[in-house]
């Protein structure tokens, strides 16, 4: 059965069970902490992406044929 229109009078007959206020506050706190954690991880991801970009720029050869950053033991010009 599908509902085409939902009116206030129809909602009066619906029974919804909800947790008490104390439990609602605890649930809310969990989601706040999750939001903060997600935000921190997003910032960390952004920082790592910036680091990756900077390293990529320094690790590829410049016009002279040498990158700004090299692994130890590698010194020859790139082919």
Task: Label this structure with key terms.
79 residues; mainly alpha; 54% helix; 0% strand
Topology:
Elements: H1 8-11, H2 21-59
Task: Describe the fold and architecture.
- This protein has a domain at 30-58.
- Helix content is 54%, strand content 0%.
- The protein contains 2 helices and no strands.
- The chain has helices at residues 8-11, 21-59.
Cα(first) to Cα(last) distance is: 70 Å
CA gyration radius, whole angstroms: 29 Å
Oligomer: single chain
* Tally of alpha and pi helices: 2
Content of β-strand: under 5%
Proportion in helices:
40-55%
Annotation, overall tally of beta strands: 0
Flag low-confidence runs.
Answer: none
Shape category = elongated
* Average pLDDT metric: 88
Give the ordered list of helices and strands: HH
- Assign the structural class, choosing from mainly alpha, mainly beta, alpha/beta, alpha+beta, or little secondary structure: mainly alpha
Task: Please outline the major beta sheet.
Answer: none
